[in-house]
Amino acid sequence: MRYAGKKMITMLLTLFAVTLFVFLAFHLISGDPATSMLGTDATPERIAALRQELGLNDPVLVQYGRWAKGFLTGDMGTSYSYRLPVGEMVLDKLPVTVTLTIMAFILIVIISVPMGIYTARHAGGWVDRAIYMVNQVIMAFPPFFAGILITLVFGRIFRLFTPGGYVSYEKSFAGFVSYLFFPALAIALPKAAMAVKLLRSSLISESKLDYVRTAYSRGNATRDVLYKHVLKNALIPLITFLGMALADMIAGSLIIEQVFGIPGLGRILLSAISNRDYPVVMAVIVCIAVLVLLVNMAVDIIYGLVDPRITVE
User: Fold this and answer.
1) What single-letter DSSP state applies at residue 78?
2) What is the DSSP string of 186-226?
3) At what angle do helices 86-121 and 265-274 cross, to 10 degrees?
4) Report field, pTM of the whole predicted structure over 0.90
5) Closest CA to 77 of 69, 68, 86
6) Cα gap 184→246, rounded to integer Å
7) Quick check: 276 and 32 in contact, CB under 8 A?
8) Sign of CA dihedral 108, 298, 100, 266
9) What is the rounded distance in angstroms from the CA atom of residue 284 to the CA atom of residue 93?
C-alpha cells in the first residue's frame, strides 16, 4: 500500500509536469487557433471575437488552470476544429491505438522468447550466426521504414492485405484485427530483434554462474536447469527491456498509423497540432502519458512475481 501510494503521487506529479510543459510549449510556437479555425474567413474583428470566446486572451497559466480544473472533473473540453467533445473523440480512437500496441507487444514476446532460447542453446552454430546477422539488419530498420517494406511486399506484391483498406472494429472485429496484424508486425520486428539478442546474452551469462554448475552436479537435466533456474533469472533484463519497448511503442504506433492509414490517436494528434487545437493535443498527450506510467508500474509488479527476492522498496 505504501509503495502504491508513492507510485500514485509520482504519476500525478509526472502528469502535471508533462501537461504543463506541453501547454507552455504550444503557446511559445507560432500560430493562432482562432486564425486556423476561421481560415479564409479570418478578419481582425472575427479573430478577436473568437479569441475572446475561447479564452485565448487570458494569461497562459490561467488557461492551463482552467484546462486542468476541467480535466480533473472529467471535462476534456471541446475541440476548436471539430466543435466536438474531446473526450468522445479520444475514446473513439483510443481502442485502435491500444489494440495496435498490444498486438505488437504480443508479437515481440512470441518471436523473441523462443528464438532467444534457441540461439542461446545453440550458440556458435550456423543457425545462431544466421539469426544474428538477420537481427543486426532488422534492428537498423526504423518502424516506419519496416512499415513501408511490409506494405510493398505483403500488400502490393503478395496482396495479403489491402493498403489503406482499414476496417473499423465496430464493423468487423476480425477484419479490424487482421488489418492491424501487419502494422503491428512493423512495430514489433525491430524490438523483437533487440529482445532476441538481449535474451540470448542473458541466458549465456546466467548459464556460466556457479548455481548452474551446482544444479547440474545434482543430476538435473539440461532442460530442467534451463527452464526452472536459468530462464527465470535471465528474464529480468528482458522484462526491463519489454517495459521500455512497450512504453516506446505506445508513442511509436502514432507514426505507423500514418503509414498504414489507421484512424487512431495519431491522426487526430497530427491534425490537432497543425490546427493548434490545444484541447485535443492535451487529451492525447495525457492518454499516452498515463499508459506509459501504467506500463512502468506493471513492470515493477512483474519483477516481484518473476523473482520474489526483488523488492520495490
Assistant:
1) B
2) HHHHHHHHHHHHHHHHHHHHHHTSHHHHHHHHTT--HHHHI
3) 130
4) no
5) 86
6) 12
7) yes
8) negative
9) 10
